[in-house]
Amino acid sequence: MCKLLTKTRYYNITAIFAVQTPKFILKNLKRMATDVKIWKGLSEEDFYTLMKELTHTFDTDEMWGIYHALQDNHSCLTLNLSNDTFAIEGT
């Protein structure tokens, strides 16, 4: 799977993964991610584990506060890891 995703970069192809928990995604894939959407529902432990495995310069405690303040299950935190920006959607 990692070889396939590495090739997608060279061919300018976007790959999207949707999982119920970030534990189902290999660490190498998390490190290669450029954008991440996190919907309401992750535990604090899962959130911190995910943030530890992503390549970013965000303050994880600040991001947890923003994520934890999401109002409903349809809200999500979008992280753009390429330029270290984030957005809140669906509030």
> What's the β-strand tally?
3
- From the structure provided, what is the oligomeric state, counting identical versus distinct chains? single chain
> What is the SS-derived class?
alpha+beta
Mean pLDDT: 87
Gyration radius, rounded? 13 Å
Number of H- or I-type helical stretches: 4
Distance between the termini: 34 Å
**SSE arrangement, N to C:** HHEHHEE
Spatial strand sequence of the major β-sheet: 1-2-3
What is the beta-strand fraction? Answer: 15-25%
Count of structural domains = 1
Biggest pleated sheet = 3 strands, antiparallel
Low-confidence stretches: none
Helix content: 25-40%
Indicate the overall shape: globular
Explain what this protein looks like in three dimensions:
37% of the residues lie in helices and 16% in strands. It is an alpha+beta fold and 91 residues long.
What are the SSEs and their pairings?
Layout: H1 2-10, H2 27-32, E1 35-39, H3 44-53, H4 60-68, E2 76-80, E3 85-89
Antiparallel strand pairs: 1-2, 2-3
In a few lines, what is going on in this structure?
The protein has 91 residues and is of the alpha+beta class.
Descriptive keywords:
91 residues; alpha+beta; three-stranded antiparallel β-sheet; 4 helices; 3 strands; 37% helix; globular
